[in-house]
Specification:
Strand order of the largest sheet: 6-10-9-8-7
Number of helices: 12
Largest sheet: 5 strands, mixed
Number of strands: 12
Strand content: 15-25%
Structural class: alpha+beta
Oligomer: single chain
Radius of gyration: 23 Å
Length: 318
């Protein structure tokens, strides 16, 4: 993709800071904002990350939001109605919930529906999606059932889906940084710039990922029922590390939300990194929720990259 000379110059300047290992989170933020509209895969992890940086408050779309929303919907129904079968209000479905139900179908196991038939054919994930869509018509802010004879089978199929709650990481550091390298290579090639830069991403991969984690702090998700979910950073075995003196594992970016009738909040892993917890943090840094407090990634006087915990003073402190 051919881009304007000024934008290209800024991209190269930020790539030089990576090559020379002089970058901090501000360089990474600027680089990601600059390539956001440079032909990124609209369903890719890099585009998702760039959207997070541009719109960190009330995220209500994207692959991360979809995974969180589906998990929240399933847990909410499962806790409100803990016994099988779950009863759904399927005659009229609010628009946001309808979309989340479609996402739940699309994320279900491919073999989940093989014992059922739709129009005398073995059901599949695609045919169930089509069957669900074609059973409703949109009317203002809701979807109303247009084929009432389908309701019984829809409820059976949704019960299949809602009794399986899988919590998987949405994407990992390797996927994200590989996509970043691929996009930058394409930009340099299409603008006839020698690639003296992208291999340095591998050399600084954990440092770059640390900067990205820092930039993603305080992002929020708006769920289908207008509940809010918070982003937090911790490690995947934090409870064992705190309670059983286990060595803390790699840093993970989570989405944290409350579910009706659950005593504790629930966490969905969003990004798994390769950054060792102890490389930059100690257990004494943790908040009372066992999460890492706000931090920024800076260089010290010796030029070494590290984290600086943010302490916000309020009017009550002064």
């Amino acid at each position: 993709m051919k881009i304007h000379a000024k934008l290209l110059s800024s991209i190269i300047n930020n790539l030089e800071t990576i090559r020379d290992n002089t970058f901090d989170e501000n360089n990474i933020k600027l680089l990601l904002s600059e390539i956001r509209d440079c032909g990124l895969n609209k369903n890719g992890f890099l585009k998702e990350t760039c959207h997070f940086l541009a719109h960190p408050v009330a995220r209500d779309q994207g692959i991360c939001h979809s995974s969180v929303d589906v998990c929240y919907l399933k847990l909410k129904y499962a806790n409100i109605q803990p016994h099988t079968p779950i009863t759904f209000n399927l005659e009229k479905i609010p628009r946001n919930e309808f979309q989340t139900l479609l996402d739940a179908i699309s994320k279900s196991n491919k073999k989940l529906f093989c014992d059922y038939k739709i129009e005398n054919k073995r059901a599949s994930r695609d045919s169930v999606t089509k069957f669900f869509k074609e059973s409703y018509k949109k009317k203002e802010s809701v979807y109303e059932i247009s084929k009432p004879d389908n309701l019984e089978l829809i409820e059976v199929l949704l019960n299949l889906i809602f009794r399986v709650i899988e919590v998987n990481v949405v994407f990992n550091q390797h996927d994200l940084l590989n996509e970043l390298k691929k996009v930058l290579k394409a930009i340099l090639k299409s603008n006839r710039i020698k690639d003296d830069y992208t291999e340095s991403i591998n050399c600084n991969k954990n440092k770059i990922m640390l900067c990205i984690l820092s930039l993603l702090q305080e992002a929020k998700f708006s769920l289908y029922d207008n509940s809010e979910a918070q982003s937090v950073i911790t490690c995947i075995n934090i409870n064992s590390a705190v309670n059983d003196n286990e060595t803390p594992k790699e840093l993970t970016y989570y989405c944290d939300f409350n579910v009706p009738y659950m005593d504790k909040s629930f966490r969905v892993p969003i990004i798994q990194t390769d950054i060792g917890y102890a490389e930059y943090f100690c257990l004494d840094d943790l908040t009372n929720l066992k999460t890492i407090p706000l931090f920024q990634v800076t260089r010290n006087s010796a030029g070494e990259l590290g984290v600086e915990l943010i302490e916000l003073s309020t009017t009550e402190d002064s």
